[in-house]
């Protein structure tokens, strides 16, 4: 993940667990010159939502997103939740920390490169019922979430094995060796469920990055 996101998918309409994020995103975009999609946060002319696959995975991914990250257009945690079946985003901070439903049942793993974290292995994906909790925010925000949020209590902290450089590149001042949230989730699922799912998420990331770069250059209509 970058300096803003912590180190470490035929379109289907998002379920109700995405509603709090979509509502806050739409509200925060009032007054902006370029209308943005409340789902992917790209300019509406470049919206990616109708092209996103819906991928079945065994792992239940829960993105715990800091409220400031929820109004950042380069965030990729929301893209992961729109792509992966059974996933959700829960915005933390301010008055948005009320969850619509409890966490899914199962063994909880937190994806975060803390000093005490152990390496994620394929054995962690054996059987059903793995819940992957992913703090999403700046490095400092994610560490505070991990330390203060009750959802992380009793969960085992894991980190990604070494891999190649990030393909993200949308944010400045990224920590060396960091990857974005979608990339981190993809790599984690690659360990837990195989390379095919990681490759599909990498394709989604590449498309999101390309659209974002077009938007930054003002190439919204071509």
Describe the structure.
There is one protein chain. The chain has a domain at 54-203. Helix content is 28%, strand content 14%. It has 5 helices and 6 strands; from the N terminus they run αβαββββαβαα. It has helices spanning 19-28, 77-83, 139-148, 181-193, 195-216, and strands at residues 60-66, 88-92, 107-111, 118-119, 130-136, 156-159. It has a 6-stranded parallel sheet with strand order 2-1-5-3-6-4. The chain is globular. Residues 1-31 have low confidence and may be disordered.
Summed up, what is this model?
By secondary structure, the protein is of the alpha/beta class. 28% of the residues lie in helices and 14% in strands.
Characteristic terms for this protein:
222 residues; alpha/beta; six-stranded parallel β-sheet; globular; disordered N terminus
Question: What is the fold's blueprint, element by element?
Answer:
Elements: H1 19-28, E1 60-66, H2 77-83, E2 88-92, E3 107-111, E4 118-119, E5 130-136, H3 139-148, E6 156-159, H4 181-193, H5 195-216
Parallel strand pairs: 1-2, 1-5, 3-5, 3-6, 4-6
Helix pairs in contact: 4-5
């Amino acid at each position: 993940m970058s300096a803003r996101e912590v180190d470490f998918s035929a379109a289907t309409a998002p379920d109700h667990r995405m509603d709090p994020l979509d509502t806050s995103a739409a509200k925060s975009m009032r007054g902006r010159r370029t209308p943005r999609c409340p789902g992917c946060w790209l300019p509406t002319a470049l919206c990616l939502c109708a092209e996103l696959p819906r991928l079945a995975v065994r792992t239940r991914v829960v993105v715990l997103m800091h409220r400031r990250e929820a109004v950042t257009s380069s965030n990729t945690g929301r893209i992961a939740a729109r792509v992966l079946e059974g996933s959700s985003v829960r915005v933390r901070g301010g008055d948005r920390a009320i969850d619509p439903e409890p966490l899914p049942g199962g063994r909880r793993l937190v994806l975060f490169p803390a000093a005490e974290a152990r390496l994620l292995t394929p054995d962690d994906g054996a059987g059903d019922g793995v819940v992957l909790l992913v703090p999403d925010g700046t490095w400092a925000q994610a560490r505070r979430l991990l330390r203060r949020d009750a959802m992380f209590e009793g969960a085992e902290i894991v980190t990604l094995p070494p891999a190649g450089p990030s393909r993200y590149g949308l944010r400045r001042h990224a920590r060396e060796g960091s990857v974005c949230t979608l990339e981190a989730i993809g790599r984690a699922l690659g360990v837990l469920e195989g390379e095919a799912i990681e490759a599909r998420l990498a394709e989604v990331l590449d498309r999101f990055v390309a659209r974002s770069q077009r938007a930054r250059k003002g190439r919204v209509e071509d």
